[in-house]
Amino acid sequence: MTQEQKAKITKLRADGYGYIKIAQLLGISENTVKSFCRRNNLTGKVADETPKIQSPADEGKHLCLNCGVCVEQNPGRKEKRFCSDECRIKWWNSNLDRVKRKAVYEYICPHCGKPFTVYGNSRRKYCSHECYVADRFGGGPDE
């Protein structure tokens, strides 16, 4: 543990943060924080309220791209950009121009002869479920 981390632990503990929160903020083990606090007499009751965050960048937090809520980051993990799956889906559906679609396939429907494009499914044959049913089980414009 560096001297800088020790100083931050001391300051955060004095501000009322708990062991888990300090460990998350600094990206170190909870047990390491707990041991340091016990050795340096920094134990005791945690303040009732955790201090308010001034800005998201102060403590490794980022804003959700969709709704603007602070998204808590996990140390050592990929950066989270959305607060929930709902926000992620809404954002991607409203920003389709930003999606880099690499797996786009172009086919001609064997039933209606219409050209169509498919994203992500290289084995698709028909342009729609109706064409699939008509070609497979009869009916439709040919019969």
What does this structure look like?
It is a single chain. With 143 residues, the protein is an alpha+beta fold. It folds into three domains: 1-46; 53-99, no CATH class; 104-137, no CATH class. It is 34% helix and 10% strand. A two-stranded antiparallel ribbon has the order 1-2. A two-stranded antiparallel sheet has the order 3-4. The radius of gyration is 27 Å and the shape is rod-shaped. Residues 47-57 have low confidence and may be disordered.
Supply database-style keywords.
143 residues, alpha+beta, two-stranded antiparallel ribbon, 34% helix, rod-shaped
Can you summarize the main beta sheet?
2 strands, antiparallel
- Our estimate of the beta-strand percent is 5-15%
Radius of gyration: 27 Å
Helices and strands: which structural class? alpha+beta
How far apart the termini lie comes to 78 Å
Q: Order of strands side by side in the largest beta sheet?
A: 1-2
What is the residue-mean pLDDT, rounded to a whole number? 82
pLDDT < 50 runs, ≥5 residues: 47-57
Topology as a string of helices (H) and strands (E): HHHEEHEEH
Strand count = 4
Shape: rod-shaped
Describe how the helices and strands are arranged:
Layout: H1 3-14, H2 19-26, H3 30-39, E1 62-63, E2 70-71, H4 85-94, E3 104-108, E4 115-119, H5 129-137
Helix pairs in contact: 2-3
Quick overview of this protein structure:
The chain is α+β, with helices and mostly antiparallel strands and 143 residues long.
